[in-house]
Amino acid sequence: MKKVIISTLFASLYFSAQLAGAGELSADLKAGQDLYNQLCVNCHATGVDGAPRLGNKDDWKERLRMGEDTLYEAVIEGPNHMYSKGNSPIESEGQIRSMIAYMMHSVTDDETSKLINTATDEEKARHMRLLRGYKNYDLVCFNCHNSSEEGAPQVGKPEEWGSRKDLGVDKLTDSVINGKGHMFIRAGTANFSEADYKGMVEYMLSTLERLQSSKQ
Ligand code: HEC
Ligand code: HEC
Fold first, then answer.
1. Is there a common fold for 11-115 and 121-209?
2. Is 144 close to ligand 2, i.e. is its CB under 6 Å away?
3. In this predicted structure, what is the pLDDT of residue 202?
4. Which of 40, 59, 68 gets mutated to test ligand 1 (max ligand atoms within 8 A of its CB)?
5. How confident is the model at residue 165, as a pLDDT?
6. Structure pTM?
7. Mean pLDDT in residue range 12-22
8. I need a surface site. Which of 9, 98, 101, 188 has the fewest CB within 10 A?
9. Per-residue pLDDT at 38
10. β-bridge partners, 180
C-alpha cells in the first residue's frame, strides 16, 4: 500500500486512511473508535432504523459528500430515530467529531476519499432540511402517508402522487396548512411552523425521486 501523496490539503486525512488500511489507526481515530464502540455501535453496526452501517459504502456515499461539518451538525440535531448525539452524554465537540471521523474512515478508500466534502452549500443545506423534514414527518404524517390511508398519496410511490408532484413544494405546503379532503388543517397539529411543513413536504417529494440509491 504505497502511495504518493500529492495534495497537502487532504494529506493528513489521507495519510490516516492509509495507516488504517495497514491496520493501525491514528490516535484521534482510535479514540473515536473506542467511543463509537461504547455509544454508537448498537445502531450503527447493523443499521437499526436505517442507521448508516459502519463500513458500508452505499450507506455512506452521499454522507461522505456532505463532509464532517455537516454530519456533525446532523448528529447534534439528532437525525431520525437517533436523538441528539445518539442520546449520549458527550459534550465535547472534539469527541463527537472523532466518532464521526472514525465512521467516515470506515468507508474511506482510494475511490471514496474523492467524495469527501464535495457537496455544494445548497446540497448541504438541503441535506439538513430533509433530515429535519423526515424527523417531523415521522411524528405526524407517517400515520397516513406511510400507507395510503384515506387516499393519502404514499411516500416512495410516484404513481400515487401523479400530477400532485408538479404543484411544487409551496402549493403542496398550502394544501397541508389549509387542509385537503381527509387531511385536516395543518394535518391536525398546531406544533409546526410553515417552514417545518415545507420541510416535511420537501422530504416527501424527495422520496419520489431517490428510489435508486442515496438514502434508505
Ligand atoms: C438509537 C440508534 C442510534 C444510535 C445509538 C446512534 N445512531 Fe447515528 N443514526 C441512527 C439512525 C437511524 C440514523 C439515520 C437517520 C436518517 O437518515 O434520518 C443515524 C445517522 C447518523 C449519521 C448520519 C447523519 C446524516 O447527516 O445523514 C451520523 C454521522 C451518525 N448517525 C453518528 C452517530 C454517532 C457518532 C453515534 C454515537 C454517539 C450515533 N450515531 C448513535 C441511529 C442511531
Ligand atoms: C389523517 C391522515 C393524514 C395525515 C396525518 C396527513 N395527511 Fe397528507 N393527505 C392525506 C390525504 C387523505 C390526502 C389526499 C387529499 C385529497 O387530495 O383529497 C393528503 C394529501 C397530502 C398532500 C398532497 C396535497 C395536494 O395538494 O395534492 C401533501 C403534500 C400532504 N398530504 C402532506 C402531508 C404532511 C406534510 C403531513 C404531516 C404534517 C400530512 N400530510 C399528514 C391524509 C393525511
1. yes
2. yes
3. 97
4. 40
5. 92
6. 0.87
7. 46
8. 9
9. 96
10. 183
CATH H superfamily, domain 11-115: Cytochrome c-like domain (1.10.760.10)
Q: Is residue 75 within 8 Å of residue 100, measured between CB atoms?
A: yes
Give the position of cell 423534514. Answer: 133
CA dist 170 and 155 (Å) reads 18
User: What single string gives the DSSP state of each residue in 36-65?
Assistant: HHHHTHHHHTTTGGGPPPTT-HHHHHHHHH
SS3 string of 141-199? CHHHHCCCHHHCCCCCCHHHHHHHHHHHHHHHHHHHHHCECCECHHHHCCCCCHHHHHH
CATH of domain 121-209: 1.10.760.10
pLDDT score at 23: 67
Return the higher-pLDDT residue of 139 and 22: 139
Atom of ligand 1 nearest to the CA of 50: 12
Ligand 2 pocket member 151 (CB < 6 A): yes
- Report yes or no: 60 and 67 within 8 Å, Cβ to Cβ: no
Q: What percentage of the chain exceeds 90 in pLDDT? A: 81
For CA atoms 68, 75, 206, 191, the dihedral sign is negative
Ligand with minimal distance to 136 CA: 2
The domains of the chain are located at: 11-115, 121-209
